[in-house]
Amino acid sequence: MPELPEVETTVAGLRPVLEGKRLTLVEPRRADLRRPIPVDLRQRMTGARVVQLSRRAKYGLIETDRGDVMIFHLGMSGRWRIDPAELEKHDHLVLETEENRRLVLNDPRRFGSLDLVRVEELDEFGPFAVMGPEPLGEEFNGTYLKAVTKDRKAPIKQLLLDQRNVAGLGNIYVCEALHMAGIAPSRMGGGISRSRYDKLVTAIKAVLESAIAAGGSSLKDFVQPDGELGYFSKQWLVYGREGELCHCGAPVLRKVDSGRSTFYCGKCQN
């Protein structure tokens, strides 16, 4: 599933084509993805000018001069294609601009979503209303993380994946950041010291920034809007490397909990 760096990369790829441009065509090609596509999406977006593209957690935001924000989630297999020669079976939304550029949202498994909200109601949008701070923002620091996990007995990895604690973190980058910080994914959140949380926050920000710079990680379906793959997977230290050697010489381990794989080093992380 595309995580924060992949969505950030996607938004950056769409920005030169969409930002400041008027939409001359907005065509949903089916009624639903994971949930119904707003029935008034075509009417409210056609003729509007895109004033800003941004990201919140794992969602992309396309804001127009009419005060609407189209929110997209890529689900497990979603991606945007820019100026495709032909439309494909799983191209479920088509946008065209005044400059005759075409963008299509492709989602074979249809686990993604499209929503349309007023800009003044954005913070009250269901998923956003309960989200924690952005991990790349100043509000996310060791002090915050220590406070939000106080007396919590849940494993630190589980706490980091909870969007109520921090917005946008996913399995790949949590595994990588915990390894960089030397913290075992199973360690009880409430038992981690403030100094170790400072180190973990630094690791989370570093991993995310490196992944964004590399264009994200290409897993199965994800590619950037221009068709390029994300290359951060070549920098993974533990994720997907079960049985290979960590830089300390010990083998990378893998365990599965609730269908999700955790990769870690039993020697480096404690």
Give structural notes.
- The protein has 270 residues and is an alpha+beta fold.
- Helices cover 25% and strands 22% of the residues.
- The chain has a 4-stranded antiparallel β-sheet. A 4-stranded antiparallel β-sheet has the order 2-3-4-8. A two-stranded antiparallel sheet has the order 9-10.
- It is elongated, with a radius of gyration of 20 Å.
- The relative contact order is 0.14.
- The mean pLDDT is 92.
**Distance from first to last alpha carbon:** 28 Å
What's the rounded overall pLDDT mean?
A: 92
Largest sheet, strands/sense/barrel: 4 strands, antiparallel
Q: Strand order, biggest sheet? A: 1-6-7-5
Give the class from helix and strand content and strand pairing. Answer: alpha+beta
The helix count comes to 7
Helix content: 25-40%
C-alpha Rg, in Å? 20 Å
In short:
The chain has 270 residues and is α+β, with helices and mostly antiparallel strands. It has helices spanning 4-18, 41-45, 126-129, 142-148, 156-161, 171-181, 194-213; strands at 23-28, 50-56, 59-64, 68-73, 79-82, 91-97, 102-106, 113-118, 252-257, 260-265.
Topology:
Layout (H helix, E strand, L loop, with lengths): L3 H15 L4 E6 L12 H5 L4 E7 L2 E6 L3 E6 L5 E4 L8 E7 L4 E5 L6 E6 L7 H4 L12 H7 L7 H6 L9 H11 L12 H20 L38 E6 L2 E6 L5
Antiparallel strand pairs: 1-6, 2-3, 3-4, 4-8, 5-7, 6-7, 9-10
Helix pairs in contact: 1-7, 4-7, 6-7
What features would you highlight for this structure?
22% strand, four-stranded antiparallel beta sheet, 10 strands, 7 helices, alpha+beta, 270 residues
